[in-house]
Amino acid sequence: MQSGPPPSQVIGTVFALAAFTVAVLSGLAAGKSAGAVLAFALVVLIVARIVGGIFGSMAASAVDDAIESHVRAHPVPDVDEAVREQAAESA
C-alpha cells in the first residue's frame, strides 16, 4: 500500500537537512572559515538525523495508534449483510 521510505525516515532526513542548512548559514554569517563551518554542519547533520529519526518514529507510532483507535471506534458497516437482512425481512 505504501511506496517509498517509511515516514520516520522522511521526517528524520528533512530534520537533518534543515539543521544542516541552518548550521551552514549561521556559520557563514558569523564569518567562520568554510572548513570549520562544513565540519560543524556535518556533525549537526548526523546528530539531527538521529534525533529526527527518533521523533519521526514516535510521530508515526502516534499516528498509527490514532488511526487504529478511530477504526475501532467507527467500524465500517457490512453493507452486504444489511442487504441480506432486509431481503430476509421482506420475504
Radius of gyration: 25 Å
Largest sheet: none
- The shape, in one word, is rod-shaped
Q: Which structural class should the secondary elements be placed in?
A: mainly alpha
Number of E-state strands: 0
Helix content: over 70%
Instruction: Please give the domain count.
Output: 1
Let me know the average pLDDT. 90
Order of helices and strands: HHH
Number of helical stretches of at least 4 residues: 3
Amino-to-carboxy terminus distance: 41 Å
Contiguous runs where pLDDT drops below 50 for at least 5 residues: none
* Share in β-strands: under 5%
Core attributes:
91 residues; mainly alpha; 3 helices
What does this molecule look like?
Helix content is 82%, strand content 0%. By secondary structure, the protein is mainly α. The protein has one domain. Helix 1 packs antiparallel against helix 2. The protein is rod-shaped.
Overview in brief:
The protein is an all-alpha fold and 91 residues long.
Fold topology:
Elements: H1 7-29, H2 34-73, H3 79-90
Helix pairs in contact: 1-2
